[in-house]
Specification:
This protein has 160 residues and is α+β, with helices and mostly antiparallel strands. Helix 2 packs antiparallel against helix 5. Strand 5 and strand 6 form a beta hairpin. Helix content is 32%, strand content 24%. Strands 3-2-1-6-5-4 form a six-stranded antiparallel beta sheet. It holds the Pfam family GAF. InterPro entries: GAF, GAF-like_dom_sf. It comes from Pseudoalteromonas amylolytica. This is GAF domain-containing protein.
Length: 160
């Protein structure tokens, strides 16, 4: 398993998360609607709005997962925040970075992951809007575009 690196903007990213007061905040019905929407549109059992803190990822909104957070070291989202593009893992069992990850070898048995970074106006990726499936799957350019657009709406909700 490959642990995610920290972005070069890590101090600004953590400062921005703290200033927005998002971590450990109350549920937001509008964000929950967006999470439910992407789970439905993409027919996935799990959809999350994940915020990547210094040592954990915390779920601001979730569908299909009981956990409220996981360690950043095992998170797919920790990898997804390293760039601006939607991060896609079609089959985690065939990906050297994830094939022995405990979230792949054990519950929730992640096979597919797609995460759109939630990018603040200052350039910091605060977390992701992500999709998880227990079956490998393809994710085409149209899918990426839709997920990116909904992630932009999530970011707008965070800042307004």
């Amino acid at each position: 398993m490959k642990k995610p690196q920290k972005p070069k903007t890590e101090p600004l990213r953590i400062q921005t998360l703290n200033e927005l007061g998002l971590l450990d905040s109350e549920p937001d019905p509008q964000l929950d609607r967006l999470t439910e929407f992407v789970a439905h549109v993409f027919c996935v059992p799990v959809a999350l709005i994940s915020l990547v803190d210094s040592d954990r990822q915390w779920f601001k909104s979730k569908v299909g997962l009981e956990a409220c957070e996981t360690s950043r070291d095992v998170s797919f989202c920790g990898h997804a925040i390293l760039g601006p593009d939607v991060f896609v893992v079609p089959n985690a069992l065939k990906d050297e970075r994830f094939k022995d990850n405990p979230l792949v070898t054990g519950p929730p048995y992640i096979r597919f992951y797609a995460g759109a970074p939630l990018i603040h106006n200052n350039g910091s990726a605060l977390g992701t809007l992500c999709l998880i499936d227990i079956e490998p799957r393809n994710f085409d350019d149209d899918d990426i575009k839709v997920l990116r657009e909904v992630a932009d709406k999530v970011m707008w909700e965070f800042c307004h």
